[in-house]
From TrEMBL:
Membrane topology, record value: Multi-pass membrane protein
Gene Ontology MF: a single term: 4-hydroxybenzoate polyprenyltransferase activity
Cofactor(s), by name: Mg(2+)
Annotated family: Belongs to the UbiA prenyltransferase family.
Assigned EC number: 2.5.1.39
The name this protein goes by in its record: 4-hydroxybenzoate polyprenyltransferase, mitochondrial
CDD domains for this protein: PT_UbiA_COQ2 (cd13959)
Amino acid sequence: MPKPIRPYLYLTRIDKPIGTLLLFYPCAWSITMASYALQVPFTTPLKYISLFGLGALVMRGAGCTINDMWDRNLDKGVERTKTRPLAAGEITPTQAFAFLGLQLTAGLGVLTQLNWYSIFLGASSLCVVTIYPFMKRVTYWPQAVLGLAFNWGALLGWSAVAGAVDWSVCLPLYAGGICWTLVYDSVYAHQDKNDDVKMGIRSTALLFGERTRPILTALSASSMSLITYAGYLNGQGALFYGGVALATAQLARVLWQTDFESRPSCWKGFVGCGWSGFWVWMGSLADYAMLILSVSP
């Protein structure tokens, strides 16, 4: 890319797509499960998965921009973050703010392709997105706030397909996603815990400490149980539960193998947690595909 554009791309963390995927997967679960429940033609989930994929890319980038605007002074004093565009002075705060406006406009453009119920529901998540970067200064549970924001798609995806949220299914799906976020972002936070202590930043990694593995095991079990319960309430078939079983095995493998004192091991574990979200989606997608094939003339 042209040199003047590169700092803006790095500001969105486009070189680390795992964040976009983690935002996208709850949307994909919900879209696919709603499509299964309503037995809509395959063009419907295809349309919304494409829209939400673009939306996840844009809004994850906007979240990173907001985070770096909050943290630019802190980032200057930390080895791992001092090369970020704002901390390094490659972009001014004014330029970052203008770029954020462009990102949010693009996100709004995606949102306006949905029904009015979904537009209002999607817009209501912006307050959580905005306050998240600040929460690590005031609570040891910023990962929980991230979970509230990153799993909003579990509600929004269903409303996009159905025109309204089926709360009986979507609330346990949303809660399961929040528990999942607590797992993967706590693993991620262990990379930064030494720097966080110096900067006065709080996280579940510091809160859990040596109890991290058993606590994350319990959260993983809660996540998969809640997602399974959402599938049960939605009348999902065996393929869905097969996907959840693979997701559960993936989380167990990550928690068994991750060395929480090693940055490379934590990064690998963080990325590995993303695959559990992928397997939940594949299970629901296989279930939906089997249903559509069975009812096709």
